[in-house]
Amino acid sequence: MTSTLYQQIQQFYDASSSLWEQVWGEHMHHGYYGTDGRDPKERRQAQIDLIEELLRWANVTQADNILDVGCGIGGSSLYLAEKFGAKATGITLSPVQANRAIERAQSARLNAHFQVANALEMPFADDSFDLVWSLESGEHMPDKAKFLQECHRVLKPGGTFIFATWCHREIDRQPLTADEQKHLEDIYRVYCLPYVISLPEYEQIARKVGFKDLRSADWSTAVAPFWNVVIDSAFTPAAFFGLLTSGWTTIQAALSLGLMSRGYDRGLIKFGLVCATK
């Protein structure tokens, strides 16, 4: 990972995470609104439902040692640790996120541990975890193959990999247009992303690095309402005051929430899932 990108991602989440927690809670990921995206839900419940639906889709009913790659402030890690009575480890580029996740784990008295680490060079031995979980962090990775290779390396034989990430539409039949590429570049700039790829491309990479029993799914319709919910809730007094005190990068990201909503509406942005074993 280039040092400049590393610093941009770290600074973005250092600046924005406390605001996100204050206004929207501990889960920094999409919500699930039913297969047709029409189930009315409170935002936090929709985010918890996404975790549960991912576990159900991947047929995961138990885990003992979990790695959360791109853990944020520990939302998924702590939820999974409590659900399964498991040990959870989370990694993030943000010291602010790692420290807050540690505080939350201690407060909840859960067996969860967090550290600052690069997902392209994970500080773990081969075959360490029976569940490797990555929820909306793959889009930040400048080397998608290296990222999936590392996830495969630290997964125990027979373990499960669950991966959900932002993608762009398939390009087999029609390449991205100049307008679509411009839309993506605007998203990259605001959210500190190097680039995203299509779900079929992720599948190809996953097979190449050695994952087995691979399944994939497109849950774009199920999660797309999330962005409009966040946009609506961003105009509360608490959110507005928090934005004013959190710095320009966070303000810019908030002002650009519509980029993601419009990306889903036009079929450009996709929410891709991959489940596999080792």
Automatic annotation (TrEMBL):
SUPFAM superfamilies: S-adenosyl-L-methionine-dependent methyltransferases. Residues 67-163 form the Methyltransferase type domain. PROSITE patterns: SAM_GTMT. GO terms for biological process: methylation. Gene3D superfamilies: Vaccinia Virus protein VP39 (3.40.50.150). The keyword S-adenosyl-L-methionine applies. The keyword Cell cycle does not apply. Keywords: Methyltransferase, S-adenosyl-L-methionine, Transferase. Pfam families: Methyltransf_11 (PF08241). Residues 154-163 are annotated as: SAM motif III. Residues 127-135 are annotated as: SAM motif II. CDD domains: AdoMet_MTases. Residues 66-75 are annotated as: SAM motif I. InterPro entries: Erg6_SMT_methyltransf, Methyltransf_11, PiNMT-like, SAM-dependent_MTases_sf. GO terms for molecular function: S-adenosylmethionine-dependent methyltransferase activity. Belongs to the class I-like SAM-binding methyltransferase superfamily. gTMT family. This is Methyltransferase domain-containing protein. It comes from Phormidesmis priestleyi ULC007.
